[in-house]
Amino acid sequence: MEANKTWKNPIVAWIDNRLPIFSMMNADLVDYPTPKNLNYWWNFGSLAGIMLVIMILTGIFLAMHYTAHVGYAFESVERIMRDVNYGWLMRYMHMNGASMFFIVVYIHIFRGLYYGSYKPPRELLWILGVFILLAMMATAFMGYVLPWGQMSFWGATVITNLFSAIPLVGQSIVTWLWGGFAVDNPTLNRFYAFHYLLPFIIFALVFLHLWALHVHKSNNPLGIDVKGPQDMIPFTPYYTIKDAFGLGVFLIVYLGFVFFAPNFFGEPDNYIKANPMVTPPHIVPEWYFLPFYAILRAITFDIWFIPAKLIGVTMMFGSIIVLLFLPWLDRSPVRSARFRPLYRQFFWLFLVDCFVLGAAGGHPPEGHWIWIGQVATAYYFAHFLIILPLLSYLEKPRQLPSSISAAVTPGGVGISAKGVAE
Amino acid sequence: MAHTASTSPESVDDEVTRRDFLLIATGTVAAVGAALAAWPFIDSMNPAADTLALASTGVDLAPVEVGQRITVVWRGKPVFIDHRTDKEIEAAEAVPLNQLVDPQPDSARVQKPQWLIVVGVCTHLGCIPLGQKPSDPRGDYGGWFCPCHGSHYDTAGRIRKGPAPANLVVPPYVFGDEQTIKIG
Ligand code: HEM
Ligand code: FES
To answer: Is residue A407 part of a domain?
Structure first.
């Protein structure tokens, strides 16, 4: 944090002298020095933050009308849709907001993968991001149970049953998670409690994430360190305006879905009230879980004495846990894929692989989808555990520019972090 | 260890002192205390007394004809009751154990051969297998078929094909008289 500024307004100065909150906001949002070459892929962090705020806001207003009881949950959501003033808006913003939140965060993560933002000194920043992703997944999973439709119920049943794969204590853990002998009222109640709590935990994690970010500052498309004030510009007005523009474009897309295709991402079966006696013919999770669902189902055979179910569950969680180790799996000192001719190609292959996994997760595991899911799963892990470590040694990176300024403003004219033309 | 906490001038950096012992002992007691205090919170999430109290269901078998299957609810889960035909019983008894994924003779799964009583929850990930209605598919072995990931069960409710690791669970039940049972 910068040394306390002197404020003209005496009230602001009085407060700032006792609690330097205005100095902090100034240092982190206004004067904050930012690499001058950030492209639009750097908009997605602020978009994710805004989505979190929208989710909490719409969620709290939904909570004012929602009833967490198996006898009333479905009806209370229908009442929100039909009778509560603007209830439909709150719910559709919340429902589509979850999808948008994941799109934004996935793009944010792939941005980090492409530009090597997980490399030193930003490893902890990356790891905090993976924890945020895990917490988001838990939140979205439990939120989807709340409207108590058929997919809510059966999604919850299938996913909680995963834990029964754990040897010895599996069944006791599942009973404990349910608070009974099936997904039922106690389950709905606790999911609601956690669904309300977790977003605030995410908020705290985001705070740590930003704190870590502001220690070493943003990475940039060249992936090289900033060499001095000539490589940077102040956050305000340059990036506040760029983020605001990006937000405008994003809101057109997001609200486009809310107003014109609000059930695009949803499953029609979830408008049928949960029935514990009838399983829908084809259970699918929300689209943002499909790649992980494909990994879960890829293992159809026991390996040695380990049952297929346990391997599938372990691999599904492993597919996210492996991200935590990424900074140590990719040892190449060059961050940005712009200067890594081989990594750049494997990056795109990996992205395609994730889409293939998503497609495999969305189809019933029959015919070709079985081996497609298996090959794509194998490639997912090979990317992290074999390809990246090997590339670190085999690849010959291209020549890095000597500085951001040298590459971006070779004429020497630019604006420095001090905000003046140099 | 004793560096910052120490007030006595004699204690040196790497020397083990009584203060270290006290610190470790206190820390251990605090950790055990915290773990014990966590238990009520964890256990509060287990099934409550009233949930456990709902745990038994009585069924009148008299109206169920040979070849008919009915579903009853026990602990919020479906229980399949199958009044098996002689052919189905024979088929179940004839299977050699070495052909089974989860080997169990038919006799270990029924109290009376004509009544097969199993929990109707797939042992894979908890879907409800099809086969209760006459129009349902019954899978390759004439028992039940789980549509979720394709598990096939035979006429003794044993897993024969597909990802499920175990046979359909036989719930605890007792015959009251010839025609009634109490499950749970
Ligand atoms: C990380 C942020 C959040 C995510 C990703 C999220 C996700 C979801 C999802 C996917 C649903 C199901 C929507 C549907 O199909 O109807 C849902 C429902 C719900 N959420 Fe959230 N949520 C978040 C934050 C919150 C917060 C902070 C609250 C405040 C209490 C909240 C309250 C609710 C309520 C009451 C419902 C049930 C009503 C409904 O189904 O529309 N959510 N949430
Ligand atoms: S739940 Fe029955 S096969 Fe997966």
So the answer is: no
Q: Is residue A13 part of a domain?
A: no
Residue-range definition of the domain harbouring residue A310: 288-399
Q: B148 in contact with A at a CB cutoff of 8 Å?
A: yes
Query: Mean pLDDT for each consecutive 10-residue tract of chain A (422 residues)?
Result: 74 95 93 95 98 97 97 97 96 98 98 97 98 98 97 93 87 93 95 98 98 96 94 94 97 98 95 92 91 89 79 93 98 96 98 97 87 96 98 95 88 54 42
User: Which among A158, A179, A282 is the nearest to B47, CB-wise?
Assistant: A179
The chain A residue lying nearest B44, using CA atoms, is A179
A157·B76 Cβ contact <8 A: no
The strand pairing partners of B175, in sequence order, are B181
**Is position A309 within any domain?**
yes
Q: Is the dihedral of CA A353, A356, A362, A367 positive or negative?
A: negative
- Cα(B52) to centroid(ligand 2), Å: 26
Residue type, A250: F
Residue A142 CA: which ligand is closest?
Answer: 1
In a domain? residue A310: yes
Instruction: Give me the helix-helix angle, A170-178 and A150-161, nearest 10°.
Output: 150
Q: What is the pTM of this model?
A: 0.88
The residue annotated as part of the active site, out of A16, A242, A405, A416, is A242
Residues B76 and A70: their CA atoms lie apart, in Å, by: 12
Q: Is B146 in the pocket of ligand 2 (CB under 6 A)?
A: yes
Taking CA atoms, A390 is separated from A63, A334, A346, A395, in Å, by 50, 14, 12, 8
Per the CB < 8 Å rule, is A179 touching B76? Answer: no
A107 and A246 inside one domain: yes
Across the interface, whether the CB atoms of A182 and B148 are under 8 A apart is answered: no
Q: Which residues contact B71 (CB under 8 A, 6 or more apart)?
A: A277, B78, B79, B80, B81, B120, B132
Domain count, chain A: 2
Residue among A158, A179, A279 whose CB faces B46 most closely: A179
Which value does ipTM take for this structure?
0.75
Neighbours of A68 (CB within 10 A): 20
CA distances from A8 to A5, A14, A75, A125, B113 (A): 10, 10, 56, 36, 91
